[in-house]
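How a chain folds remains the central question behind the approach discussed here. For one protein, we set the task of working out the structure tokens from the amino acid sequence alone. The sequence in question and its structure tokens are set out directly beneath this paragraph.

_____
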Amino acid sequence: MSIYEEVEFEDLDYDPVTQIYTYPCPCGDKFSISLEALWDGEDIATCPSCTLRIEIIYDEEDLPPLREDDDDDDESGGEEEEEEGEKKKQDEKGEEKKEEIDHNIASVLQKSLTAKKKKQAGVG
């Protein structure tokens, strides 16, 4: 297929949330190409509503860095697992501390009740 137009990278609109570059198509829709596709060396953007295609003129050094997805198995996933493990350890320590405090409160209450019973037995 032939190319409708050559478009400079700087003339594209960029959505950082979706990481998609777009450019108006004469049919009323928009040509689109992902940042990942550009990083992979692709330079043809297509229009979903018609058969037109444009060629993107760019240098890789002009591209913003790719954002890592949350579900990828990469190094950041390992860091997240470490953080979750650390949080779990802290939660467990917090539970142990609560149990210790509960035990101490129960012990103090028991001693208090015992002292009260002894005092009542001595008075009555």
Remarks:
- Residues 70-76 have pLDDT under 50 and may be disordered.
- The chain has two helices and six strands.
- Residues 80 and 96 are 24 Å apart (CA to CA).
- The two ends are 106 Å apart (CA to CA).
